[in-house]
Every structure is written in structure tokens, then in C-alpha cells.
Amino acid sequence: MRNLLLSAIILLSGASSFAQESPVKDTTLRSLINQAVTNYPRIKELEEQLKASDVKDEMIHANYHPTLSADGSWSYVNPVAKVPFGGNEFQFQPYNNFNAVLNLRQMVYDFGKTRLALERNSTERKLNQDNIENSRNAVAYQVAQIYYAILFLNRSIKVQEDQLVSLRENERVIQSKIKNGDAIQYDLLTTQVRTANTDNRLKDLHGSLERQYVMLQWLTGKDQHGQISGAGVRDELPLLSSSGDWKTINPEARIINRKLELLNYDLKSAMVNDRPNIFAQASGGFRNGYVPDINPLKLNGSLGVGVSVPILSASRPKLQQKMTQVNIETTKLSLATLENNINKDLAAIGQDYNTLNDKLANTKLLVDQAQKAYELAQTRYKEGLITNVELNIIQNSVEDANLNLLQVQYMMVLDKLESHKVVGVKLY
Q: How far apart are CA 211 and CA 312, in angstroms?
């Protein structure tokens, strides 16, 4: 009982070590990712291609099954051998020769060639499954990037809309001042130009937002308008600074390890290809030509065991083994290269994130200062202490500061997402 309990604990701990939970906690993003990995046509195409491995497995299994063939022939021979016997001629072969036969051949032992081919095909199937999983994860990251872009575009649109409200309020104030003789038409025209430019930028943002929705519909197969709120980013991913168990979770590492398995099978195949095959064969049927009565068809058959021994192979097994061994060593070195690239990319992302984080505090301070300056400038403008040009300059600084803040926050989120992508964390 104790042993059973211990085994269960080991199995559960092993399962938990291989299970990889998605770091995405945002329910909306998780839903979009699940829709994309389920409905994306390219993934469905790869899943359909996976069936070829099953067919290939059946074809290899067929080596264990007997083969049956039928042969039939007729030939006319003239002259034929004859000898005089008892006052007559004795004929050894008929003029018309008929032969009908069934041939049965069964592989008895091939020294592991078929078993090795089956194991290799199983590994190749796992490689194809890994490619499908990697394609799903690539789609998941693409969905995440689009999702965060939509969130930040919505916030940028809100900044531009607030700016338009302020500009139109300024227009109203200027028009009142013109009626009272406290402002000139130039002030109104400059504000209207500023309003038109802000409105154009707002239209550009809406256009960019619609393009993101088009991409999202292409990936998920559904129109996602109204499914994503304009609120801020929720449940941001943590920044990864360490590669962790990258050999297990990184998509490229999994592919390299699968290729190593296949190369090892290729090496074994090169070593066993020059081994013989032992087979049994049987045949039976009807033919004529049996002495002394050569014309009637008679039942005949044969049974035996044979050995097929390769003597000279065009593939040169020894050279094939040597080439496969070189490929194995090269593939092993590619794992070291991949690890070096992961660490390099994580270091670069970390440095970029730290720089953005430093800028974030300064940008937030600039936003607060610009907003306070603008509120003060509005009061001073209404009192006639500053010109409309000065008010527009301060108003521009408020918009620029808010948009810069959004840009910094957006780049920080992308850095976090990229750190997960570099390591190979699964998002779905």
C-alpha cells in the first residue's frame, strides 16, 4: 500500500512538472486565444496533415504481413526435344505450355529494421505534433499583441477625444471674446486648424484600431467588435529575466530535440541496413509439361526459406553513418547557440524594460505638470493674460505628454510579452 501511495505521488509530481499553465489571467484575452488556436485555418491544415503519419505507420506495419501474388503464363515452343522409344517418339515438353501459380512470401526476421522504422515514424509524428503546438503558440502571441494594441489604441483615442473637447471649448471662448472685442479672427483660425489636425489624428487612430480588429477576425474567425472594453491593461504578464526550464518549454528547443531523436534513429538504421532478411515462401498452382504425360494440367507446389543478404549498397552505409553522426553533433551545438540567443535576448529586453521604467516615472510627472500648466493657462487666457498661441502650445504639451505616457506603457507591456515569447512560454 505504501509503495502504491509513493508511486502515485511520483506520478502526480511528474505530471505537474510537465504541465505548463498559461500565464494569461485576463479572461477576455484567454477567450480570444482559445478561439484563434481552435479556428485558425493553418492549424487545421497541419492537423489534417498529421493523419499521414498514421497511414505511414500502417504501411510500415505491412512489412510484418505476408504478400500474395498470382502469376499466369502461356508459351508455345517449337521444336521440342523428342527421342524414339518403343517404336514411338517420346516428347519431353508440350508445344503449348500453361502455368498458373499463387506465390506467398512472409518476412520471418529482419533484424529489427521494421521495428526501428516504426519507432522513427512515432518520433516523426511527435515532431509534427510539436510543430502544430508551436503554430498554436505563435498564433496565441499574435493575438496577445493585437489585443494589447487594441487596448492602447482605445486609450489613445480617449486622449484625442478629450483634446477635441478642450479645443472646441477654446473655440467657444474665442468666439465670445471676438464678440466682445477681446480677440481677433486669427486666434479663432489657429484654434480651428489645431482642432482639424487633432480630428485627423483621431481618424487615423480609429483606422489603426479597425485594422487590428480585421487581423483579430482573421485569426479568430469572428468579428470581435464590442468584445474588448476600452479599459486599461488588466493582469499584465510579469517580465521574465531568466530562461528557466527553457529546454523543456521552448518551441525551438523541442524541435531540435525531436530532430536529434530522428537522427539517432537514422544512425541506427544505417547500422542495420546491411543486415540480411530471412523470409519464408510458398507457391502452388497448375501447370503442364510433367513427363511422361506432358499435356494435362497438374497440381504443383513448393515451400522453402530464404535469406536475402545485402552485398553492395549504393548508399554506402559506413559513409551514411559518418554523415549522420556529423549532423547529430551539429544539432547538439545548435542547442547551445539557442541558449546563448535566449539569454542575449532576455538581457536586451530587460535593459529596454528598465529604461522604459525609468522614463515612466518622468513621463507621469510631465503629464501632471502639463495638466496643471494647462489648467492655469486656461484661467490666464480667460483673464486675457496670455494669447491663444501660448494656450495652444501648452495644450499641445498636455496631449504629447499623455500620448508619450501611453507609448511607454505599451512598450513595457510588449517587452513583458516578448520575454515570455523568447523563453517559449505557452500562452494557451
A: 63
